[in-house]
Task: structure prediction
Amino acid sequence: MNYHWNWGIFFETSPDGVHTYLQTLLLGTGWTLATAILAWCMALTLGALVGVIRTTPHPWLVRLGDAYVELFRNIPLLVQMFLWYFVLPEVLPVALGDWLKQLPDASFYTAVVSLGFYTSARVAEQVRAGILSLARGQRFAGLALGLTLPQTYANVLLPMAFRIILPPLTSEFLNVIKNSAVALTIGLMELTARARAMQEFSFQTFEAFTAATVIYILINIAVTFGMRLLERRTAVPGFIGTAPQPAATH
Amino acid sequence: MFSNFDFDVILRSLPYLFVDGMSFTLLLTAFAATGGIFFGTLLALMRLSGLPPLSLPAAGYVNLMRSVPLVLMIFWFYFLVPYIGQWITGAPRPIQVGAFVSSLVTFTLFEAAYYCEIMRAGIQSIPRGQVAAAQALGMNYVQTMGYIVLPQALRNMLPVLLTQTIILFQDTSLVYVLSITDFLGAASKVAQRDGRLVEMYLFAAVVYFIISFGASRLVRHLQSRIAIVR
Result:
């Protein structure tokens, strides 16, 4: 292979004149994590809400939840990002659209919102599956004790359902981190974008991509480890509490 | 909102969108799914072989592919494939491959890791007694897998494999980062040429939605048809 390796490249100054290439990659890692964590908070909230809605005894609520999930699951994430980034400001009233376009860090907010909605549909699927995996007697028992339906969900069904779906939720969280790389198409300078920029300026293609790959793997290991701890801490004695793991997606 | 919505730009670009763009997307999906399922099954057999020299590299490969964003892998392979080609053919310099070959290699190798996990679950869903029975009948490993285990594993996992293929279909849109003219790439090129971002991206979203939604409905129907009653 006639490729010229140069691992010292990471300590050379990048074209911005201030940071070394290594520092630019770490800055990118920061953006990746910030995007992923904010989008994850949004996805968990919305996903839990929609997931619950889809298990309520109200047919029209169920249908609304189903439509939500189908809408966000059947359009590629990249297209959804383009819709939020390029199309939304155009179809809004002119003043609002202009304000959106001039927002500093617009690509960051757009990435969070589109990743959040996209992931919420997948979380909703998991939450629904978790609730449906509980014995229906639990719901009846809650209602028979005089709890209202919201109370039954909050105190009986959801605490158990969330424990059951912790392993698939871990994969979803890992997916959010990986999917945040799609945001480079709307100009977010996250980790993959930084590696790509480093490749373009320094021509040290494989060093740049190796570094990004290693950082992603380290993040993966850290998250997996943390979630294992959480699983152990929240385990209810007497329950095995593992749902069948659905095929991972990305 | 739709007062200056230009339907005509969609109509005018339909041939380009579908003949150039969608055919690339569908061909890439079909070939990458076939190759991915083939290599994924091989990887699954390696992981389940119980032989560390086979199972460890397979597990490492699958875990590596599953912890890295697809976009990064697309970049990796875009620059790596010419060198791999050089290495295989022994040519004096890196071999220039076209956009289609490069993305085909990427998606096949990337999706193989995901198909592997599905096939592994499928193989493990077959009762051990069947393997024992095949061996008692005098079948060797290849016969046991080829005649007994894999056909059932494939059948059990068909809905999941197809669902993964729908995800693959959506993921092919990411070749956008290499400026390749797949369906989204074609839509994006027209959008930028004519300044019609709203129309083209909305139309692309609708087309992706119809295909993915229709396909997932078909999968659900198939699932109820092929389920084995036990």
Q: What stands out?
A: The radius of gyration of chain A is 22 Å. The domain at 17-234 of chain A is CATH 1.10.3720.10 (MetI-like fold).
